[in-house]
Amino acid sequence: ENRHPTMLAKNPAGTTPFIELEDGTCLAESVTICEYLDLLYPNERQLTGGPDPLTQMQCSMWTTRVQIGITQPFQRQYQYGEGAPYFKHHVPWVEASVPALAGLRKQTIDNLRWLEEVMQDNANKGVDTGFIAGTAHYTVPDLQLYTTAKFMGHPKVNVARLTESFDPGGDG
Asked: How far apart are the first and last CA of the chain?
């Protein structure tokens, strides 16, 4: 549906998620939507780490680390591998990017291991909150990693067996 002309008129990137506001304005990208919700509801639990500036910037730092180091390389290796039969019709560089599969998988796995080590080190130091950004509740990087891990482990993600099965959550 997100590639249908009526949806492309709202979100020209053809990506999800995006939301349409009452006035017809559309906002896309998960982090942008979370930032918008935090601004609309400043007295609620902040998905972007606020209200204090240091906590918000630590959350921003971890959001960037999770995006660049884990979720983006995984999504790309999915697009260029298992998802290539679909994505080659929508993303013109998919077929040219197939040789990057092994490197993207390695980047994802190595950065998941690194994140686990950092969180374990924090736990050993007694500063473990159980959440990536060190906040008292889940924030954007936790949501990004959780949803990507759930997707990675879903049996339909590797139905064609074009890439090695990958389930970091261990429940797929």
From this structure: 26
